[in-house]
Amino acid sequence: QYVNPNNPLAHELGTAEEIWAQTEGKITALVAGAGTGGTITGLARGIRKHNKDVKIIAADPHGSILALPASLNEDFKDQPYKVEGIGYDFIPDVLDQQGVDTWFKTDDRTSFEYSRKLIREEGLLVGGSSGSAMAACVKACTELNLTEDDVVVVVLPDSIRSYLSKFVDDDWLAANDLLPPTPPLSAPTTPVAKAEDGKSKDGYGDATIRDLRLKPVTTISADSPCGDAIETMREKGFDQLPVSAGTGSRLVGLVTLGNLLSYLSSGRATGHSRVSDVMFDFRKINEVVTSTQDISIKTPEERKKAATSSETESHPQRRQFVEITKDTKLSALSRFFEWNSAAIVTEKTSEKGGYKAVAVVTKVDLLTWLVKSSKKDGSN
C-alpha cells in the first residue's frame, strides 16, 4: 500500500465524500494518523475538492520521520515506539506530506491513555493509533484556537481486537513504563456531594482498607524460580504475588501473571529464572509517597494538563511507590484503581525505609465490600 495509487484514491472518492455528506459540508478541520499515507492524503484531496479552507491535521508518533517541518522529528529521532499502524522511518510514495496543514507529534503514553479513555467512557473499542489521533485533536483544538463552533472530524482507524494483551492490559503498560500519572489519593479539591441523610454519595463514607477484612498475604522470595511463582498463583488463584527480599519479609517488588507470560512467551525468561529477573522492582522506583497529600496531581483536569505537557519531555516521568496501609480510605483506594489493577497493603519494618506486605487488595475486594454495604443499607 506504500506505492499503490488506489490507496489514497479510495479515501479521496469514498471516505472523504462520506465525511462531507455526514457533516453536511460543515466540517472545518480533519484529524487522522499518518501510516502508509493513503488515508490522510486521500482525505485531504477529497475534502478540499469541496472546501479548500478545511484544516488537515496529522498525527505522527515520536520516533517517526513523516512530520513536517523535519525539525519536529529531531527530538526523538530513531527512538522506538509502541503505537502500531502509524509512523515510519521512510517516506511512503503515496504520502503527500505537503497536503497536511499541521503535523503534531504524539507519544505512546498519551496515545494509549486516550485509547483507553475512548474505550472506558465512550464505549468505542479502538486501538492505539486512534488514541494518537485524539491526542493530536486535543493539541489542535488548543494550539489552532478551534472553538465549539468548529466541526472537527477525527478518524479512528483501528480496533481493540489486536491489543487485548497490549495497551488494554495494565501489566503490559507497567512493564513498558507507559502507565499514566498516578491519580490522586488525597481528598478531592471540591467537597464530596452529600445525600439528604448527610452520607457521602460515593458509597465509601469513612471506610478504610481495614474494613475489607482481607486474608493474610502470600509472598514469594525474589530468589525463587519463576516456576514456583506460577505454581503458587495456580494453586491460590492469584493474579499477582508480592515479592520479598530473600528469606526476609522486606517488600522489594511484585510479580504478575501478565508479566510472567510476557517474559516466558518471548523467551526472555524460563521457569528456572529468578523471580527478581521478571518482577516489577520497587527498589528502582524514584520516589516513595508516604503521605497521600504529597501527590501533586489533584484533579482530572490537572492530571490531563500534566499528561499533555509531558509529551514534550524527553525523559520518562518519575515513577512513584504509593504507600497504602490498612488505614487508607476506600475512596482513595478507588481512585488508585483507576490506573492500577491491585494494591499491596504494607506496614513499615524496623529496617530504615523498609516495608513488608500484609495483604493484597484488588478491585474485586472493593466491589465485594460495596455490594455488602449496599445490602446493609437496604435492610436498615
UniProtKB/TrEMBL annotation:
Q: Would the keyword ATP-binding be found if you checked this record's keyword annotation?
A: no
Alphabetical UniProt keywords: CBS domain
Q: Positions of the region Disordered?
A: 181-202, 293-320
- Which Pfam families does the UniProt entry name for this protein? CBS (PF00571), PALP (PF00291)
What protein name does the entry list? Cystathionine beta-synthase
| Gene3D superfamilies from the UniProt entry | 3.40.50.1100, CBS-domain (3.10.580.10)
Q: Which organism is it from?
A: Aureobasidium melanogenum (Aureobasidium pullulans var. melanogenum)
Name the PANTHER family for this protein. CYSTATHIONINE BETA-SYNTHASE
* UniProt domain CBS: residue ranges: 213-270
For the keyword Methyltransferase, the answer is no
